[in-house]
Amino acid sequence: MTTSVTVRALTVRHRRTVALNTVDLDFRTGVHGLLGPNGAGKTSLIRVLATVAAPAAGRIELLGRDVGAHRERAAVRRALGYLPQEFGHYPGFTVREFVSYVAWLKEMPAARVPTAVERAVERVGLADRIDTKMKTLSGGMVRRAGIAQAIVNEPELLLLDEPTAGLDPEQRVEFRALLRDLGATSTVIVSTHLVEDVAAACQEVTLIESGRIAYRGTTAELTALGGEHGRDSDGNAIERGYTTALRAHRASLAEAAR
Amino acid sequence: MSATHGNPTPPHGNPTHRDGNPTPPHGNPTFPPLNPTPPPVNPTPRRGSPTPWHVTDAQAASYATGSAPETDAWSLEKHVESCGDCAARVSAAVRATTAGPELAAIRASILTAATTPRAVTGRLGELDARGGLRLSARGGVPHFAARASRLLWAAGPAVRGAWMVAVVLVGAAAVALAYGAGYGAARQALLAVAPVLPLAGVAVSYGRHADPMYEIGASTPSGGLRLLLTRTAAVLAVSVPLLTAAGAVLPGGSGGPGAAAWLLPGLALTLATLALGSFVGCRAAAGTLSTAWLLAVAGPVVGRPGTGSLPLAADLVRLLSGAAAQGAWAAGAVVCAGLLVLRRRSFDLMEPR
Please, which domain of life does this record's source organism belong to (chain A) (predicted)? Predict the structure, then answer.
């Protein structure tokens, strides 16, 4: 259980707006949920951790390497899996070609690629569609192909931005099982706005609001927080815990501002 | 489904059973005499659902007609995976609907296809080394050709799309103008357009606007400058021979620039696009530089209307002919290449929006 992601005083800006405000975070092996309202800064954090966006300030260490240096960054990227919130594909590619192409981009040894591609596609439940053209797949299947490209290199650090969007309930259940499986050996960071994804698959929760960390704890702790407060009509325990933690964070901010 | 959500209610979710009624659905007073299942028997008690239940005829019927609420349909689907009696009841209900004859026809055709001997329909080469079925039916295209085509796709999205068509059309149009219409300045026209075609190719090959897999690529060690250079090379590999060959078969006119005169300006402008693209993105850079080139070539013509094609030729001569002009383009190419080397790390991250 070594620390694979260390973030210190991270600030991310989009033009004038501050997406993340001096955030400190650590992630270890396991599945971590990134929860928060839309526009809270989840995607900004995932993009910076995926090394595709630059922070305005702060230090990021991934897998023991400082990603500010080019050589180190290339090494990190070989061990990285990333599913962007929105991603495209070349419509003429089959699922196999799509995943193989990303394996090639990730500089996997050519001899390992065919079996790794088949394994990744099988893990997301698309084995029967592996030679189907991407453009004929449904939205949920495209998303699963996206997950397959992210895990094809068995990444040490896996970043998934809203991976369950477009999946039907049964596929979500299967996907959460896959997440738990991946989290046994890798650091998996999943951004989602679905509290039940976190409840079912994540060991730890980080709650982000308006560019700041509102809450950190285990899933059990967040559930317990919801058990103490509120009534059954407010949803299940973890949903109440989410609301309680958010309100406590807002109250402390208001207190500090006074 | 519900069990994994930690939802304590039994999985039927039907509003008529939800109001704290502990009896299972088949205990519903409306249906007990009609229910063929013996009520107390539950062959597969499901984990996490303390009150066993079975699909009633009414539920099966509403599922079959598609009128069941979504949550009920999910519960039912999960249940019939493990309960043969209910599965049979739901199947019967579905067969009773209008979909019944259609399903029967599909079943029959699948059975026919599956029982036809493989030796008759199968072909040699359909099984690959892994023993799995492969799409060998792509007109018998050998495997390595498929691989090569993927590499081509990867190397240059431009090479497969509208850009390729545009390059061929420009070359063909110039030849047609010269020999079909007897237009004397066809080579000059081609030379005036040729240097911006690679720029257009770069613009449609790389970047957040052009490449659907841009963000995924940017997170990989091959992303960034390496991918951009690979794709630029693919664009040049197509456009240089095509356009130069087209220029060579055109009548040169008297004292006009040679067919290869556009090569250095084309290279310089391409490198300038990459260098400027490191600041503003490749599409904006290609647009800016193409416009600048076309204005430099055609601007004077627009300013002096009515003098025919001669000013175009004169401006091209000024821009392309002679050691001084070509030397300037070479120097420009070197400067842009140097700037690109200095800016190489900027492609490691996603380009500005």
Answer: Bacteria
pLDDT at B263: 93
CATH of the domain at A50: 3.40.50.300
Sequence letter at residue B285: A
Residues paired with residue A80 on neighbouring β-strands, in sequence order:
A157
| pLDDT value at residue B51 | 57
Contact with chain B for residue A89, Cβ under 8 A = yes
Chain A partners within 8 Å of B4 (Cβ): 173, 176, 200
Contact A196 B5 (CB under 8 A): yes
Nearest CA in chain B to A201: B4
Cβ–Cβ contact A93 with B under 8 A: yes
The Cα–Cα gap between B133 and B185 comes to 57
Tens digits of residue pLDDT in B264-291: 999 999 999 999 999 999 999 999 999 9
Domain ranges of chain B: 15-101, 147-348
Q: Looking up tokens 């999960």, which residue turns up?
A: B78
Residues 6 or more apart from B64 whose CB is under 8 A from it?
A: B90, B93, B94, B96, B97, B99
In a domain, A76, yes or no: no
ipTM greater than 0.85, yes or no?
yes
Q: Is A73 on the interface with B (CB under 8 A)?
A: yes
* Assigned domain for A73 exists: no
How confident is the model over B141-164, as a mean pLDDT?
63
Rounded Cα distance between B19 and B27, Å, is 14
Proportion of chain A above pLDDT 90, given as a percent? 66
Nearest-10 Cα torsion for A233, A234, A238, A241 = -130
> Under a CB-based contact definition with an 8 Å cutoff, are residues B248 and B177 in contact?
no
In 3D, which of A123, A167, A105 has the Cα closest to residue A142?
A167
pTM, to two decimals: 0.71
The DSSP output letter for A129 is G
Among A90, A99, A178, A236, the strongest candidate for a mutation testing the B interface, having the largest count of B CBs within 10 A, is A90
Alpha carbon distance B92, A46 (integer Å): 50
> Strand, helix or coil at B133?
strand
Contacts of A50 in chain B (CB under 8 A): 219
Q: What is the pLDDT of residue B16?
A: 42
Q: Which residues of A touch B134 (CB under 8 A)?
A: 131
CB contact under 8 A, B150 and A54: no
| Pick among B219, B226, B353 to test the A interface (most A CBs inside 10 A) | B219
Classify residue B98 as exposed, middle or buried by CB count within 10 Å of its CB (0-12, 13-18, 19+): exposed
Domain count, chain A: 1
Contact B219 A77 (CB under 8 A): yes
- Contact by Cβ (8 Å): B308, B237: no
